[in-house]
From TrEMBL:
GO BP term, example: tRNA wobble position uridine thiolation
Protein name: tRNA-specific 2-thiouridylase MnmA
Annotated tRNA-specific 2-thiouridylase MnmA-like central domain residues: 209-273
Family: Belongs to the MnmA/TRMU family.
Gene name of the record: mnmA
Alphabetically ordered keywords of this record: ATP-binding, Cytoplasm, Disulfide bond, Nucleotide-binding, RNA-binding, Transferase, tRNA processing, tRNA-binding
Domain tRNA-specific 2-thiouridylase MnmA-like C-terminal: 283-353
Catalytic activities: S-sulfanyl-L-cysteinyl-[protein] + uridine(34) in tRNA + AH2 + ATP = 2-thiouridine(34) in tRNA + L-cysteinyl-[protein] + A + AMP + diphosphate + H(+)
Source organism per UniProt: Lacisediminihabitans changchengi
Swiss-Prot/TrEMBL site (Interaction with tRNA) positions: H126, Q341
Pfam families referenced in this protein's UniProt entry, alphabetically: tRNA_Me_trans, tRNA_Me_trans_C, tRNA_Me_trans_M
Protein task: Catalyzes the 2-thiolation of uridine at the wobble position (U34) of tRNA, leading to the formation of s(2)U34.
Length: 370
């Protein structure tokens, strides 16, 4: 097969590209230039897709012996990931930019261009596996090493995208083994730290970054009964479940800490309360997709597991498609769920699908605001 290897400049994608070559594929490496500031360099392990990363990717491609190109996707990235991130926070939701990047850039824009150029598949360094059922349908599954499993952030992939995807690291038992293989191959990135945080906010100051783009306007912090307990400089800086940075002027009657329960961008208000009020009995969303073959009849409730963060534990649940909305009811309450997060549905190790959380139902009824 003709395979386009997406090379981020990290150790995982370099080893994935090398393994694709050794599997007998005709491989071409490509690095995506996503930054609108091409002179930016990484700081430690923050950020990705910078000039330094591009050079690291090219050195790995040279050792592997494959052609290497840099494709400028910065405009598409700004529109589909960065601007979406700002809009979601402005609406009081908590988006996952890595999900949007996989959905709209790596497995949409990149894959579309790859297919137009005659490639059969795109290979990445994600830790996930693809298998085929008895009828030839492709399925997305967790990686062999659950500690490094990245199937959650790939939950947005559709059946058509899975048909053209390749994850050479899926069966690897540990990241240490990948680093050892990279060192044996002579890759300079063998001990390069993993990137973390939001790649387009490399200093990690999300609140300051948003304030520059959305603006800061003082608003009220309220208890669930509507009483004012503090003030803030912009509701967009808060997310459900947050505890730090509230700066409340009125202590809680029981002395326990308060957490953000709701963000109201229309009124620029933040609602806080006790930790137990974060327990969620039901989540749902109308923006959903199936990763491969859809259930025979999703309108019939089915057993599954739901995962709401990349590093969260999956929770047993019952899911059902009701009036065009995918609803998941966990057997034990979820904690600190925010609208805008992605819920990924698993059946065993298989990723069945995902939805963006539009609505949550609290396990602890919230008193009406005054």
């Amino acid at each position: 097969m003709r395979v386009l290897a997406a090379m981020s400049g990290g150790v995982d994608s370099a080893v994935a590209a090398a393994r694709a070559v050794e599997a007998g594929h005709d491989v071409v490496g490509v690095h995506l230039a996503l930054s609108r500031m091409p002179g930016t360099l990484r700081t430690g392990s923050r950020g990705c897709c910078t000039i330094e990363d591009s050079m690291d990717a090219q050195r790995a491609a040279n050792i592997i012996g494959i052609p290497y190109y840099v494709w400028d996707f910065s405009e598409r990235f700004k529109l589909d990931v960065v601007d979406d991130f700002i809009a979601e926070y402005s609406a009081g939701r908590t988006p996952n930019p890595c999900m949007r990047c996989n959905e709209r850039i790596k497995f949409a824009a990149l894959l579309e261009k790859a297919i137009d150029l005659g490639f059969d598949a795109v290979a990445t360094g994600h830790y996930a596996s693809i298998s085929t059922d008895d009828h030839g349908n492709r399925e997305l599954h967790r990686a062999a090493a659950w500690a490094k499993d990245q199937s959650y952030v790939l939950g947005v992939l559709t059946a058509d995208q899975l048909a053209h995807s390749m994850f050479p690291l899926g069966a690897t038992p540990s990241k240490a083994e990948v680093r050892a293989e990279a060192a044996a191959r002579g890759f300079s990135v063998a001990n390069k730290p993993d990137s973390h945080d939001i790649c387009f906010i490399p200093d990690g100051d999300t609140r300051g970054w948003l304030a520059e783009r959305v603006g800061a306007e003082q608003g009220r912090i309220l208890e669930r009964d509507g009483s004012v307990v503090g003030s803030h400089e912009g509701a967009h800086a808060f997310t459900v479940g947050q505890r730090k940075g509230l700066n409340l002027g009125v202590p809680s009657p029981d002395g326990r800490p308060r957490f953000v329960l709701e963000v109201k961008p229309a009124t620029n208000e933040v609602v806080v309360g006790p930790k137990e009020a974060l327990d969620i009995a039901e989540i749902s969303g109308s923006k959903f997709s199936w990763a491969g073959l859809a259930p025979d009849d999703a309108t019939v409730p089915f057993d599954c597991e739901v995962q709401i963060r990349a590093h969260a534990d999956p929770v047993p649940a019952i899911a059902v498609l009701r009036d065009g909305v995918l609803v998941a009811t966990p057997t034990t309450p979820l904690n600190g769920v925010a609208p805008g997060q992605t819920a990924v549905i698993y059946v065993g190790t298989r990723v069945l699908g995902q939805f963006t959380i539009d609505r949550t139902v609290s396990a602890v009824p919230m008193p009406a605001s005054s």
